[in-house]
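Letters spell out the chain; backbone shape is given numerically. Both lines appear below:
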Amino acid sequence: MRNYNQKQLLQKHQQDERIRRAEEQLPRLREIRREIAGLGLLKARLLLGAQKGDDFDLAEKIQALSLEKAEILRANGYPADYLDLHYDCPLCKDTGYIGNEKCTCFRKAAVDLLYTQSNIRDILDTENFAHFSFDYYSSEITDPATGITSLESARNAYDKAWDLIEKFREEAGNLFIYGETGVGKTYLTHCIAKELLDRSFFVLYFTSFDLFDLLSKNAFEKDSESADMAAFVYDCDLLIIDDLGTELTNSFVSSQLFCCINERIMNKKSTIISTNLTLADFMEAYSERTFSRVTSNYTMLKLVGNDIRIQKTFRRKMNMSPKTATPLDSLPVGRLGIIPLKSCEKLGNKVNDYIVKWRKDRDHQEKNNLTFEGYERDSYLISAKAPRFGSGEAKGVLQESVRGDDLYLMVDVCNYSLTYSLCGEVNHMSPDDHFQDLKRIIAAVGGKARRVNVIMPFLYESRQHKRTGRESLDCALALQELTDMGVDNIITFDAHDPRVQNAIPLQGFETVQPAYQFVKGLFRAEPDLQVDSDHLMIISPDAGGTGRAIYLANVLGVDMGMFYKRRDYSTIIDGRNPIVAHEFLGADVSGKDMIIIDDMISSGDSMLEVAALLKEKGAGKIFMCSTFGLFTNGLERFDKAYENGVFDRLLTTNLVYQTEELLQKPYYVNCDMSKYIALIIDTLNHDGSISKLLNPVERINKLLQKHNRAQGKE
């Protein structure tokens, strides 16, 4: 509370200073202040009959003077509320309370203090899902009690953790994570804490010793600070109790644990407990009653395997990376630099996190040589921006030197969420704007980099990939323009027509397919999906996409079908020939689940019509997969189609801008491409071949084998 009192005094002092400075510069403000003060006194005297004169509307007079004051301030370059009392927290006005309830800012301040004391923020910088690895879990080590391998137990725990995170806003979930020392229990709790903290949930982390020490102080010492913290234990969104069993167990501890668990269950608050105790030892230490509460309300996760800390130490000594002992036998092309434009910042940050982790894990004696200078860094991101003038014009600016660097520029030309001011009007950025900003940054590089690579997930103007009559050929021109500016490699995803690369035959051009990510996302969302010709079929919504459908059907070993779009070429609506009808070519779909796969969803008309036609033909579940979810006409028609049972899942990647509305849809599955892009960048920086990365057959087969094992088919 002392902090709040200090805030109030400081804000009052700052207000007094603002009033003094403003009134010295603008004497009329002082007159207005005195007039407002005198009006109240005059009104009171008139009402009491102590003074004669005409009555007046006090509120109206004060409002008029206030408007005059605001106008004077604005005319002289001050905000209208310049003389008002300002607050750090407008909800409680820096009191810490709203009525009798503690304000959110009070709670956050208390939590900040707690996290500072526990050093968990520092821990979460390294212990998070971006650094999580299955490489320390073996498929050769088996739990004798269950027959589950170490790797299977880790994957199950990982999936359950993400399940809790994704459903956290809608329902409370509880996890009980147990196993031997060093198998990653605490690490997993830190990963979950980081994700939920980033989503603005109220998370508290305690070791069991610290928790019961706090509860003891609250029970016996009765000081206000411990009372507040103890209240948060019962009230926070997620409570993490780590290393249960390391505290001195007694009747007080046992009863406090039961009360804590029971009350949080009753209040539908989530709790995670980690412990080295076996289930039998847990029941013996904390009573059968507590054991019953936990087993009936918590998801039980057992981790098995060798001590990860020992593994890491051994591998460091043996100069091994987490996966293999493969040396850094190919030199980097240059010092790695990643420049995600503002349109692609979120994806770029995730890519950077992966590469930072991998390169820190690669222990090799040559890494410290001059040749590998700058190879291992805390970040490979290079700050760049394209500020605009009031006229809408812009310039590219680099915040640091890139001389000799191997640069990877990332841009999302479909990110319409960004805006800029044009002559006082707010404009949303178009693909043209994003492409121009990309060229501006390339121009700012000025040929100083060792190599310039562009990662453009949605290829600019790719829908205008062929010329008919008196039309422009924009995609080819854009590619030529980039190569003329010195771009060495262009990496895109699922190009609408890959033949467009013929426009730049002497430059590197790669179009990457997200087939593996679709399969992974679908298996995670639909664990009961049966993958065989009797139960599943791959569908191409048009003739142009048959190649992608044939590929996926062959890898999964299932049938495929396609629709042929009959168009009215005598009419043009919204720049395209309207579709008259969809004709289906393929085997009987009755009772089979369908995966409809395409490169993009624009309005969604074609995809939804195809899904509806398949339902009419007796298809089972419908899963729509598209690399780019543009949703140019919004999501309303998808919502209606889902409610009507037209489809069951919609899968798109995070390669283009995703709205929060989309991410919250119950039918939506987000396929993250950041790790894939990071692998491509890391490999290309060593001038390595990415052919294996571009053909994910082996990885899909491994996914399929794992999926079949989970269903008892192997």
The chain has four domains: 2-86, 119-309, 334-512, 515-672.
